[in-house]
Amino acid sequence: MEKYFDAAYIWESIPALIPYLKVTFIIAGLSVLFGSLLGLILAVMKLGKNKIAQNIAHGYTTVLRCTPSIVLLFLIYYGVPAIAMNFGINLNDMSSAFFVVITFTLQFGALMSEVIRSAYESIDKGQYEAAVSVGLSNTQAYWRIIFPQAFVVALPNFGNSLLELMKEGALAYTIGLIDVMGKANLIIAGNYNSHALEIYIGLSIIYWILSILIEQFFLKLEKVFSKGKKNLNTV
Amino acid sequence: MSNGLDFGFLIDTFFIALSGVPVAMIITIVSLVIALPLGFLLALTRINKMPILNQFSRVYVSFVRGTPVIVQIFIIYNSVPLLLASIFEKYNIQMDVYDVNPIWYALIVFSLNTTATLIEVFRSAINTVSKGQLEAAYSVGLTTVQAFTRIIIPQTLVVALPNLCNATVNLIKATSLGYAMSLPEITLKAQVAANASYNYIEAYIDIFIIYLIICSLVEFLFKRMEKRLRKYKIAPAA
């Protein structure tokens, strides 16, 4: 088998892969949406007074942090249909995207619960007391005073978690999802497994640019929002 | 499938998967041993803004942190044999590239990967140690090497320890991707065992439990170490 490095394959692979970023984005977007909700629930459990709820939430985070994504992915992929079968629901024909979203929702939820908790704890308790003392209701105090400040604190960590999620998302190809990674593997299989290196390099360039873009976007966002924070501090 | 779990298989596979733990541990430990000094030195080049090395480590960190580990694995796994083949051909070494144990590739991938993580960990940790510490060390007559080994590094380590723990846990988790290089570690061993009878759920539960145990142990050890180092830090100050 002749194996020579041909850079032309790198440039050819990139335009072929880019359309499949859409799948990557949809998966990441859904996981972020559901994961943030789960994270919020877990963070509320951790911050609440109920000892049992606290332990459940902390246990959940520890377990998820100790599980490799690939193991979780397969556990969900094989486990969820088996459990559903016991309730008479047939999930065997479900799209693999469904299982990928469940996996990364669970994982992102664990990450976000810590991000939200630390952001909430970083806000001075006096802020809430001050808000209530000027006559805001409980909801108003949280929504108008605590949330905007905690949001700014959480932003960099949220960005990091998002990057992490996107990179781990590459593993979804293992259960047959065709995102950028899956497409790259299909192209390689189409070439009879030659020039795999060039196509993976093309793929890595796409991921690299994407993460730099996301990173810069969050840095900008942080700057925009911390402007408001500075004003609050100086007043 | 809905007959419930096959507990006999669950227990048998647990021990098969357990036999993959040494491989995972060797990779973790060797990668850390390589990456710790390298990461520290490259972090120093970034802090001191050394001309070429600074830019190099910046691009390096950005690339490794910006791409999925699995893609890095595939790149190394596909490129190193090509390089080796041409080297062997040039020097007439009679050796088949495809006979190389995959553990070597795994070591390359995970050392490179961990080095990048540790550069960032050490960079932020060194930045927290005030410059006056180094100046004070010089002023009492320590050489640069002494100043670093006795004053700067111990303080840096205390600060870096929680992040080091995270990096180690992430590294252990990442070794599960070694299956892509047909590395006989925990995941691959259990997968192979499951292939025969399609008991995938049991196999993955085993893998899940093993990683849970290992990672909890590592976290526990780091917590212990953190406590001890903290004492060590306070003692000279008092």
Quick rundown:
The complex is a heterodimer of chains A (235) and B (238). Chain A is an all-alpha fold.
Structure write-up:
- The complex is a heterodimer of chains A (235) and B (238).
- With 235 residues, chain A is mainly α.
- Chain A contains 9 helices and no strands.
- Chain A has helices at residues 8-17, 21-47, 51-65, 69-86, 96-122, 125-133, 138-168, 180-190, 196-234.
- Chain B is mainly α.
- Helices cover 81% and strands 0% of the residues of chain B.
- Chain B is built from 9 helices and no strands.
- In chain B, α2 crosses α5 (102-128), α5 (102-128) crosses α7 (144-174) and α6 runs antiparallel to α7 (144-174).
- Residues 234-238 of chain B have low confidence and may be disordered.
- The A-B interface holds A 3, 5, 62-63, 65-72, 74-75, 78-79, 81-82, 85-86, 163, 167-171, 181, 196-197, 200-201, 203-204, 207-208, 210-212, 215 and B 1-2, 62-63, 65-72, 74-75, 78-79, 82, 85, 169, 173-174, 176-177, 179, 187, 200-201, 204-205, 207-208, 211-212, 214-216, 219.
Rg on CA atoms of chain A, Å: 22 Å
The percent of residues in helical segments of chain A reads: over 70%
What sequence of helices (H) and strands (E) makes up the elements of chain B? HHHHHHHHH
Radius of gyration of chain B: 22 Å
**Could you give the count of β-strands of chain A?**
0
Enumerate the spans of chain B where pLDDT stays under 50 for 5 or more consecutive residues. Answer: 234-238
End-to-end gap of chain A: 72 Å
User: Which chain pair has the greatest contact?
Assistant: A-B, 39 and 37 residues
Arithmetic mean pLDDT of chain B: 85
Beta-strand level of the residues of chain B, as a percent range? Answer: under 5%
**Model regions low in confidence, pLDDT < 50 over at least 5 residues of chain A:** none
List the helices and strands and how they pair.
The complex is a heterodimer of chains A (235) and B (238).
Chain A: H1 8-17, H2 21-47, H3 51-65, H4 69-86, H5 96-122, H6 125-133, H7 138-168, H8 180-190, H9 196-234
Chain B: H1 7-18, H2 21-47, H3 51-66, H4 69-90, H5 102-128, H6 131-139, H7 144-174, H8 186-195, H9 200-237
Helix pairs in contact in B: 1-8, 1-9, 2-3, 2-5, 3-5, 4-5, 5-7, 6-7, 7-9, 8-9
